[in-house]
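User: Sequence for Probable branched-chain-amino-acid aminotransferase below. Tokens please.
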Amino acid sequence: MSVWLNGDWRESAGAIDAADRGFLLGDGAFETIYVSHGLCAFWPEHAARLRCGLATLRIPAPPALDAVPAIIAELSRREGLAERSAAARVTVSRGSGPRGLFPPQTASPTMLVSLSACEAPRGPARLVASERRRFSAAVASRFKAIGGYIDNMLALDAARRAGADDAILLNERGAVACATSANIFVISADGALVTPRIEDGAMPGVVRGLVLAAAPAVGLVAAEKEISLDAVAGGFVFLTNSLIGLRAARLKDAPPPSKGEESFRALRSCYQRRLDESLTRKGPA
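Assistant: Structure tokens for Probable branched-chain-amino-acid aminotransferase:
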């Protein structure tokens, strides 16, 4: 498997310095981007969140971030994925440094770009509520931090062992925050579209923002608000992220919802149009 690392094409095995703080301490940020036929979807939005995360960590943004679409196009060709859907990951760490937590005052960031084939899962996702909690004030809930996914990983593992597809993470107050790698939305019986607030621990997801913006066009009033697990049980639920788009979901063993599917389909169609537009953008963005 080929990767792009700090301006060079490498094989993935042995590519990272053993002293890299991203590997040792999770000191960095990343983005996962949907790629179709070598084209990046919504790269400007992903780049903005990645730059925000790096600024939070006080890691300089590598100039090569501007070249990511071209890097991914070439990586698609090299990996035989130029005619397929794929998942790109752009990872930026602080780079190598001495042992210990204290970050070196001059950073030489490591930037790694990799690409893998992917296919969207089929059918509604079956969900269970995790016993693990997502701390709503954590810095790592605002961007994709390299070291910020341990609880998510363990929650997903427990959900799969319980026969579900994903887990719902609640925050320290017991309110819904997100799924393990997706934002969560609920269409209530009265036709309102709600999703957890950022301050409840929700990731400011790229697709989340697009869905909120598209809601008025399909006749939905969207709101970011605190959501209980009971609200999830009583409404039409769907998950969003860059690789799945919009995916219907419901609590494991719960019956299908009686309302909301028509609105969900309309939102999904709106998102597909925005996705198609993003994939046909010209220029470096």
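The chain has two domains: 2-117, 125-276.
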